[in-house]
Amino acid sequence: MKKLIDGAFGNKAAMIIIVIMVLAMGVLSYTKLPMEFLPEADNPQVAISVIGPGYDASAMDRAVTGPLEQALAGIKGKTNTFSESGDGFSQVNLDFDSNTDMKEAKLEVEKAVGAVALPENVSPPYVVQFNTSMIPISFVTLAFADGVSEAEKGAIEQRIKDEFTAIDGVGSVMLAGKPQPSVSIKPDAAKLAEKGVPLQALYGVLQGRTASSAVGESVMDGRIVNLNVVAELQDIDTLKQLPVVPGVKLGEVADVVLDDSKESLFRVDGKDAIEFVISKGADSNAVNVGKEVEKVIDKYNEENPAVELKVAISTSEQVVHSVNSMMREVLLGALFATIVILVFMRNVRATLVTIVSIPLSLAMTLYLLDLSGITLNILTLGGVAVAVGRLVDDSIVVIENIFRRLQKEKFSKEIVVDAAAEVARAITASTLATIAVFLPMSLLRGGLQAFLLPFALTMTYSLLSSLVVALTVIPLMSAGVLRNSTIKEHQPSKRFVRLLEWNLKRKWLPILGAFVLLVASIATYLTMPKGAIDSSNAENVNVSLQYKPGTPAEQVLENGYKLETYLLNRDDVELVSMSNGNDSESAKYGSVASPTLVSYMLKMKKGADAEQAIEEVKAEAAGYPEAELNVSTGDFMSGGSSTQVIIDVTGGNLEDIGKTAEEVMAKIAPIQDVLKVESNQQEKKMIYTLEVDPASAKAGEIAAQLQGMLNPVPVGSVAMDGRTVPVRIEPALKPQSEKELSSLTVMTDEGPKPVSSVARWVKSEQATSFYHKDGDSYIRVSASVEPSRLSEVGAEIDKQLKDVAPPEGVKLNVGGASADQSADIMSLFMMMIVSIGIVYLIMVFTFKTIKAPLAIISSIFFVPIGAVLGLIVTGITPDFTAIFGVVMLIGIVVTNAIVLIDRVKHNEERMPIREALLEAAGTRMRPILMTAIATVGAMLPLVFGSAESGSIVSQSLAIVVIGGLVVSTLLTLVIVPCIYELLYFRKSARQRRIAAASVSEAAAQ
Fold first, then answer.
1. How many other C-beta atoms are found inside a 10 Å radius of the C-beta of residue 666?
2. Is the pLDDT of residue 813 over 70?
3. Contact at 8 Å (CB) between 714 and 204?
4. Where are the transmembrane segments (predicted)?
5. Which of 141, 211, 276, 402 has the fewest CB atoms lying closer than 10 Å?
């Protein structure tokens, strides 16, 4: 290390240029680094969605879900298969092992489902593999003023979509609520009978009426010309004049109307609207994309008064807020660290030299992040916020040692170099030990590893940069700045030395006291409830109105509009969006929902009390007795499942699993802090099934005939207002009773007959949704839990489930947030154990002995004492981030012990062990306290600031780090010397006996 320091002094000009280049590269990297909310990470899940309008849940389960499940049975890496079949939709979700290449898995799934033959009139299977890069940048709503024609609307929609798509960095633009106009031909049964026209004659009404064909060429007037035939239907009136049979026009036997219906309903502030969901591409800057989206919005709002574009939600704004808040906390942390150094050093020049390491280390970190292809997000910025206190640690130790030497010796370059080299081993070992904590991340689960890796790399780059700065720039600047500086000598604290000497004489007493505190803190932690990371966003509120399946669409929408009116009249709401139904665009992104569900998103005004709004909206539930009204704070990332415990009841017998699920719900519901218990065991509805006598008729032909009579039949298309509009014949029959069903006439081999003569209708109640898990039927019971009591409630649920005795063939599988929390915490504990082993190995390499590193490692066991004490004092519930804070502390707290023991080892070359300990503790107390208090000061903004949604850099992490660091620092100064002397008790006792004998001999003389 001394060669590195000498090299810096020997190339001063080069060092100045390097410093300028590093700062410039850091600024440049900051301006070009992509900004996003979360780092890109694959979710090990693939969803396959299919929409089938008019198909009931049973038909979707039998004709769509079943064949898809069979085709997907052999997919490699698959761990679980979940499917849901409902009225008009089917969705299959595949869970994969965390080591699976998800891009390859998606291709394999697409190939498998592409070979499945699905029924007519259902959509193709939409396959989506979820990734954090799919989190939309902007949700933009488009509404039109009255009087805008459909043709103009369509043209404007397409232009806006094209402009959004053309933005540099945009990955995809999805539309929701887009009108799907069609021409409906509604047969009049009485008029058909009067004119003697069969219904089947309507099916061929468009046949041959439109054409666009080249029929040949000819020579006319000496020139070759082409001959074409063109015919187009362009309006409803022309369509009405088409002959059905000779002498009878279509308009005489049917109503022909233009239907501007939509696949799904979407409204904004009470008006029909369209929603553009804009996602960024990989490696794109979310902030830049968001700004360009706003430019397009401003352009259209200014140029076209008939257009009203609004941003409902902008995640790019949240990214800007995240970056700004984290940078603010980084700067505040740097300020607090500077104040601490100034108070201890009482020298402005030395303080200025020390804090140079912060901008230099940050600049180098940003450059390395840029080289590594890592984005600026809440995790990397959180890593910087946490690391900022450690950035000055190495520099503090170096400058303090230089400062201390110059108090006693005359200034010279050699003294500066020697003082820096004296602590080089200690700060290198401490930095490597801190970095080593993050090496075992390979043991973590896939998603957890993907999220923590950017954080760990940021910490690693920051600490390595600070080490390089401390060993090169700091000594060089010290030699220049402190050359003519007047330095007052700071004596070690005599009181502290006397306290330590007293403890060394009674070492078992402080060690036993520390052990009792450790056991008590661990026992306290085990009894504390463990919470979930709060990822709610009070700027948005989600509301849902859920009716039972089978409820008429008119009733659902009527009440949906009623609730919409109430929400629009609230003074604290800035924007209300309303949606209902499924569409192909949403299905492409794995989003399907029951047609009886109406969803609302409320954008709250700034300063509005979201919790009060939630309670007031919930109070409206009495006005909708047949529906379930749910209200919650909205976060498009959390999905509302972050604090749910789920119990899957699986088996082959639906009746058995249904009864078991009811028993499970009865056991869970009374548990304290269980907010809500529900299951996917839906209400049943009436189903009429036609059982055909195979000897009397062909079931396939009858099914085809009934489908044509009872469902819309597409018969062609017409060109209207510059767009192609499909034409369909509406159902001719709408039976209202069993009698009418039985009187339906069908064609058989023997001619037309009433359907009751060849088949019979059987009435039964069937489920409105069908759920499968790995091919078996299952019912999922979900318990929403108070976030701060997640672990306790999860344990109580496990206890209650032990009293449930399921029938043979029925199994209970517990999962959800509680299980995930336990798995994540266990992963972190495993990481902690491996980290301690790696840190110990580094210490052995550094000190070339086994005993001294044991004393250093002992400082880690003081961490739980301070961490638990901090949580108790602040009343914060420990969560995953708190445990991660303990893991981080392993690397941070050993720094103090390394600096202390390194001095002890130097002293042992010329002193007995006890004297070496007393001198080292007295000398190193100031730099140890300075580094600890500087780190605590840098973490304070995280305690009092607002944690970002879903971030691991939370208030609980900061409190654990501060509490653990404060207590471990104090105990390190007292207990580590006791443990060190205990490890060398024979040698130390022998040295004290020799010293005592020498004193006695000298006294005798």
1. 12
2. yes
3. no
4. 12-30, 326-345, 352-369, 381-403, 415-439, 459-482, 508-528, 825-847, 854-876, 882-904, 925-944, 956-983
5. 211
The DSSP code for 947 is: P
Q: Give 799's DSSP letter.
A: H
List pLDDT tens digits, range 820-864: 556 666 766 777 788 888 888 888 888 888 888 999 888 888 888
Residue 506: phi and psi, rounded to 5, are -125, 45
Closest by CA position to 329, among listed 967, 893, 951 = 951
- Burial (CB < 10 A; 0-12, 13-18, 19+), residue 220, is exposed
Across the strands, what pairs with 128?
A: 47
Strands 170-176 and 271-280, sheet pairing: antiparallel
| Stretch 913-928: mean pLDDT | 88
Neighbours of 255 (CB within 10 A): 14
Q: What is the mean pLDDT of residues 698-709?
A: 74
CB 424 within 8 A of CB 5: yes
Calpha distance 45→449 (Å, rounded): 16
- DSSP annotation string for 420-474: HHHHHHHHHHHHHHHHHTTGGGGGS-HHHHHHHHHHHHHHHHHHHHHHHHHHHHH
Structure tokens at 656: 């058995």
pLDDT score recorded for residue 946: 52
- Which pLDDT score is estimated for 535? 42
CB contact set of 867 (below 8 Å; sequence gap of 6+): 521, 525, 882, 885, 886, 889, 960, 963, 964
Q: Give the SS3 label for residue 63.
A: helix
**Gap between the Cα atoms of 368 and 383, Å rounded:** 14
Helix (H, G, I), strand (E, B) or coil at 863: helix
Tokens 């609004």 belong to 310
> Which residues, listed in sequence order, are joined to residue 726 by a DSSP beta bridge?
717
- Encode 401-437: b = buried (16+ Cβ within 10 Å), e = exposed: bbbbbbeeeebeeebbbbbbbbbbbbbbbbbbbbbbb
Contact indicator for 423, 398 with CB cutoff of 8 Å:
yes
What distance in Å separates the CA atoms of residue 372 and residue 366, rounded to the nearest whole number?
10
Asked if residues 514 and 975 have their Cβ atoms less than 8 Å apart, the reply is: yes
Handedness of CA 975, 980, 982, 983 (dihedral sign): positive
Sole residue written with tokens 């700091």: 474
**What region does 807 belong to: left with phi over 0, alpha with psi -120 to 50, or beta?**
beta
Which pair of tokens denotes residue 271? Answer: 């008006």
> Three-state SS for 874?
helix
Helix (H) or strand (E) holding 2: helix 2-10
% of the chain surpassing 70 pLDDT: 86
Average pLDDT along the chain: 80
pTM: 0.70
Those residues with Cβ within 8 angstroms of residue 193's Cβ, 6 or more apart along the chain or in another chain: none
Q: Which of 47, 51, 99 is nearest to 72 (CA)?
A: 47
pLDDT of res. 563: 92
Question: What value does the mean pLDDT take over residues 122-137?
Answer: 78
Evaluate whether 806 touches 658 at the Cβ level (below 8 Å): no
- Strands of 788-892 (E only): list them: 811-816
Distance, in Å, from the CA atom of 589 to the CA atom of 132, rounded to the nearest integer, reads: 13
Cα separation, 231 vs 650, whole angstroms: 59
Are 974 and 503 within 8 A, CB to CB?
yes
**pLDDT tens for residues 751-760?**
777 878 888 8
Q: How confident is the model at residue 444 (pLDDT cuts 50, 70, 90)?
A: low
Query: In this structure, which amino acid lies at residue 445?
Result: R
